[in-house]
Amino acid sequence: MIPTNTFALLPLAAMALSALSAQPVSARIGGGALQHGLRSGKKAHLPVMEPVKRSSSDKTKRKVKKRKTSCVARPNNATASLTASSTSATTSTALGNEWGVNTESSSTWQATSTSSSAPAATSTASSNYNSEWKLTENWSGNSFFDHWSFWSWDDPTHGTVKYVDAGTAWNEGLISINSKGNAIMKVDTTEHVSGGRKSVRIHGNLVYTGGLVLMDALHMPHGCGTWPAWWSNGPNWPYGGEIDILEGVNAFSQNQISLHTGSGCKMVESETEQQGKLTTGSFDQFNCASYETSNQGCGVRDTYHSDGYGEGYNAVGGGVVAMKWDAEGIKIWWFNRNSIPADITAEQPMPSTWGTPVADFPSTDCDPYKYFYDHFNIFDTTFCGDWAGADNVWNYAGYAGQDQSCAAMTGYATCSDYVLNKGSAFNDAYWEVAYVKYFNSTTAL
Catalytic pick from 98, 132, 242, 271? Predict the structure, then answer.
């Protein structure tokens, strides 16, 4: 049984061993097998109440980063063989830092709800942008779910949720491919349930260290009781690092982007150039170490965009979230449906032309290959739990763009009571994903 107490100060190795039988094995560069997804779930969030005001030291231009190459053990000219999980063909791709593909966990369950006529995504490249980033994986269309493993165990963040396996998800219509060729991930909307509400959590079968990841979603879950996230995770949490790319709870309208690491990773505010704001909490907001900040880590709240999360996101038809992880550090951009750069559409991304990112975590005092490695991406929608359901979150308003408490909006005293007894309120709690694309570079990483 996967331990569910994420606060227990037990050796992470013990938690990892308990997950061995439940998680798939991934092949990676260098031979040996990598345990895919040893950490069973996200951290327990602490509510972040107000954004930090930017200091007068903010720069208009970035200083040259001090790159701590002494900690980087992964070669920049490695080559890996990638096995596409949706086909028997094997292709070789020149890669930078270590990438690998899970060879045993592809879902082979046949979708009774998919449309065979749904168009597969095709490359729209028509111009040469001389991008240093090369497309290696395009997860989209009818084969989208072939690239993921389904998590169907207890929620480590104590949510009022029942994650289901692939067969249950297909048969009960919680996942499907719509007529546009987009992947749909829903939650159960039965009015009254017990124990937890059914939902989906999927782990990507590609393991990577460094790279550029693009996710295009037309719709994301939103509303009181929900806690959706698009994130990436490494092994032996928190030592392999966690990057929360698109995340929030309840009726938030602002995205919360966070890092969670082992000891030693620090943010240097004077060297950041970002649209969002560093967020406060009960600990030093510049310290990304989870154990030293009671799992708070370091975070950036997107106070810049009105359409970067939740209801505003869905109103504009979503858009593209981009995460670049290279020698400079980790940067995240948001482009709504009407502002997606042409180079992204052409699958020849040019991050240097995208302007100021929403979040900028420089490598100055946080080596991006020492504190982050062997990541895989995750989609999930949980309910309540350690963040959305906390008393001081359910009953509080005035931060992250939510100006009325969920207790007041729903009339329910607790999040769990609302989730278990108001299934019709969750018709909007679904993901519609056009694609997830991975790009690699032999020069930037």
Answer: 242
